[in-house]
Amino acid sequence: MTVNEKEFFQQMTLCICGSLEIDAVLNESFSYIKNYIPADQIFLSYSDPRENAIVLMASASEEGGDLHDSKAVISREEQKILADLNQFPEFLLLNHIGKQSIASYVLELLGKPDSSMMFCRLRIDGQYMGSIGLRANGKNRFTKYHLHLLSLLKEPWAIALSNSRRFLELLELKELLADENQYLHRELQYLSSDQIIGAEKGLKKTIGLAKQVSVLNSPVLLLGETGVGKEIIAGAIHKWSNQKNDVFIKVNCGAIPDTLIDSELFGHEKGAFTGANSTVKGRFERANGGTIFLDEIAELPLNAQVRLLRVLQDKVIERVGGSTHIELDIRILSATHRNLEDMVKKGQFREDLWYRLNVFPIHIPPLRYRKIDIKDLANHFLHKKSIDMGRTSLTNLSEYSIKNLVAYDWPGNVRELENTIERALILNNEGQLNIGPIGQASTMAPSIDTNIESEESLDLDLAMKLHIKKVLKKADGIIEGKNGAARLMGIKPSTLRHRMKKLGIIYGRQATRKAST
User: What's the angle, vertex CA 220, arms to CA 214 and CA 222, rounded to 5?
Assistant: First the structure.
């Protein structure tokens, strides 16, 4: 078949340069080139020296174009052969491909072992970029003239491959940057105020120790019962440190499944496991240059403890599926409510890691040992929760309420006090906040339904649910408006709807449908 080579080159160059989406380029090119070369498939591949692999980037056939990014691992010797033009020629015609041939890796990736192939190796400025290839079913399908036609397209294909790879890398970096920004915006909201309630009273000794160690780079272990404010102290240490202008990353070690702990902490490379569609930085790498706070460190599995020990010793990590050492400049803070010494004795926590973490322990006293802070904390939460609920006029705590708050031992510590104030605000629409003896029925506001008051034990969610239902009944099921339930309760309609959804209170069309059935 006689081919006008000039026209062939022009038309194929238009196909090749028509898009940055390489699967579309291959599809357009295959539709044209199959009229002159008996091919069943066209493909682009390249070698990755970092992973000693041949990568199938994309292909096209009668069924259309596809992106692949599938890999076949090769030996270091084969990698050297691919990079050496003297051992691996620039143009290659293979009508019989043996299993020992490097080309057999590509057939393996294409899933077509019994095929003929042609390759044109692509270079820019002497650097090997990859190969454009044609495949045909069966043996002895191609001639030297077919290879000659393919060789005419060497330069446009080299430019197209280079541009496409850079374009895909740019998209990946863009997605990674967007993920990074979203993650950091979320994680950096760790402390909304420089103020720590109790810093000059019950927490004076604790704050003094925190300030003393904050300017150093020593590991700090925060110890204390659940709800005492370990995260607040960790955030304060970061704010007072030399890394205060860098990132502060929080990790709840007990909230990460064992199967994901490595990926979450250390990150993973693209293709490291099923679903790893891009390279992702772990928490340690994200915190590089700043501070990482490992909350509930005692919940970390033993295998992850080994890797954490290496981070503490060498300040180096490796992503899952990667082999590159990533050096870290990082401050590590940790916290737990459990007795790590007892866990070490029982073999539940590594002794060497314990010694590494326990360089500077800070014990945060429970609220029952610093009742001098209760009044200030209660007023702080009252102000904060009133704003969160959209209360237009702020209430205040009566002396009777303060007396009852101080009399209670607070086994749930500061967190329990915060929840108690929120509960009281929900149940009191306006005026002074009256909180009875904690744990008794008189904790409820006097205006609450007597059915609620008669309960000896009542959790917060149930109290909220009963009170909202009572107000809804009074408002004839209307949420918004002058006589709506939200107005009667002194909160925003959106806040009320959110709480109703959380508590499972049916409203609107759902309530109408349920009533009619």
Answer: 110
